[in-house]
Hints:
Oligomer: single chain
Order of helices and strands: EHEHEHEHHEHEHEHHEHHHH
Largest sheet: 8 strands, parallel, barrel
Number of domains: 2
CATH architecture of the largest domain: Alpha-Beta Barrel
Number of strands: 8
CATH class of the largest domain: Alpha Beta
Strand content: 5-15%
Helix content: 40-55%
Bound molecules: phosphoenolpyruvate, manganese (II) ion
Number of helices: 13
Amino acid sequence: MDNKLKLAGIKDWGFKTSSPLIIAGPCSAETEEQVMETVMALAKQNVQMIRAGIWKPRTRPNSFEGVGFIGLQWLKKAGKEAGLPVCVEVANAKHALDALKLGIEALWIGARTTVNPFAVQEIADALQGVDVPVMIKNPVNTDLELWIGAIERINKAGITKIAAIHRGFSSYEKTKYRNKPHWEIPIELKRRIPELPLICDPSHICGSTDYLLSVSQTAIDLNYDGLIIESHINPKKALSDAKQQLTPEELGELLSKIIYRRVSSDDAKFLSRLEDFRDKIDHLDETLVNMLADRMDVSREIGKYKKEKNITIFQPGRWDEIVRNREKQGTEKKLTVEFVRQLFEIIHQESIHHQNKVMNS
Ligand code: PEP
Ligand code: MN
């Protein structure tokens, strides 16, 4: 189903872009002066498109909810002055039509809208036949199908200029990120739709300026096609997302620190050494699969034995001992605690599944 998408690359969006595409601008348009000053300062950095929120979906009421329609005019004017295309978030058909009316060059669909197929369909219907670039943020929850569904809806309206924006996923637990990146999800999206451009939004992943560079670098190392980063002329005074915004100068500094690596090489020596490493990985993976299969054999043996003795499958004390031990062994070998825990959780699940089959057959 995924391969039915008809997509254009970013270089065919009709703007002067280079790779990666750098989009920057304030979380929200607040005043005409703030927009103009921010945009003019960003034009001096390596920025190719301007972003700003005009209608702001806020988690709690009584927060600043955006300036509305007038902001489109400020943004358009500033973009013209700076010679840069501009993009805004649209959350319904009216937003989309207003943005088109003012000649806003690109649109994005926010995380809280991607979760809602009705809202996405309404926007798709409003855009029918207008091939304006639409960037679609991941839904707030870790649901790849919902993200793909939104991309399909927009594509079915005849829009080929689509990109996915990875802005991280919210979780109940507190982590160092505002929205956990879950890199495996955009990687799987790219595996399923290889021709879909992928843009990273480090600002909403981080929620602060602390890890912006490392998240941006990871995205570039994963061959993302662009970055969208929040920048405000005076971040401390920002009416939304103050903690995560950089000044245009700070943004320029961050961009200059990113290391760009080549995607591939035709150097024979490099390729042959890479091949050796990959052989090693293939061999280790095969050993891993065989070891896991052996482990499940033992689980089935245990299952048979427990059945004979009429003992339950799950023994919390034993499981706790395994987790503690493996975490200790893993960290001694420089693996992260989180990885070891998750790995053994799924091994344990599979093990229970095998025992269950033996005991209830
Ligand atoms: C934004 O880009 O300012 C925004 C509201 O982002 P998200 O939809 O990712 O929360
Ligand atoms: Mn924001």
